[in-house]
Design goal:
alpha+beta; three-stranded mixed β-sheet; Muramoyl-pentapeptide Carboxypeptidase, domain 2; four-stranded mixed β-sheet
Amino acid sequence: MRKIGILSNTPLQVLPEIYGSYANGCFSGGVTIPLKNKGYEQVRPSRNRNYGAPSIMDFVNSLDQFGIQKQKVIILGDIAQPRGGPANFGHASHQTGLDIDIWLEDRSTHLSGNLREKLSTPSVVNPGTGKMNQHWKPFYRELLHHAAIYPETERIFVNPIIKAKLCETETDKAWLEKLRPWYGHDSHFHVRLKCPTGSTGCIAQAPIPKGPGCDSNLQNWVNDQIKWTNAPQKSSTNVAPKPKKVLPLECQAILKQQ
């Protein structure tokens, strides 16, 4: 039996497997995603979050080819730590190597060393009016569409104002089904892939409701964002603390195994 030691900064070299849920899990047999290729580049490399399940590598390869085709450099954010699990800061999810952030950046060149760590992307929405702002570009629609029609994409989190805009402008709304409204996600979007076939330890989310989701529920998301932006709510002191998550036993061993 291997010794259980400190948290490792390298993938566990065994057959690929995922344990737990997107927000409470881990993976073994992960792959290292190159920090850059011709059609993409990852920011914040010092975070050491360029790892994932093999299926995320396939998705990144598709982004690379899409970037090359469009003569763009697609900017990637966090994927996962070497074996997944909870991060020290930044995300509650991204724990199973199946999540990836894609920044709303329209670039045709790679980043300089300084920008690679410090790039800041502006919001593309005006949360106080519920409208898009001047930072939205046609390429972002193309990027979202590419991610949404990718066969293994399970869902994509975007700001509700972005989805509402696409509901207004798209003729074929079928691909909007995978776009799920979620606050934040106004300068990037979050792609989540399906649990891989045969990964019995991977806990999937409930299925997405059928249909494009261009309905009154989406408008409620937009209206609430407008209301909270213009009249911020005071935080309550009577909110009960959330129960502490307990990682699956497999993850407790994987994250410490040397």
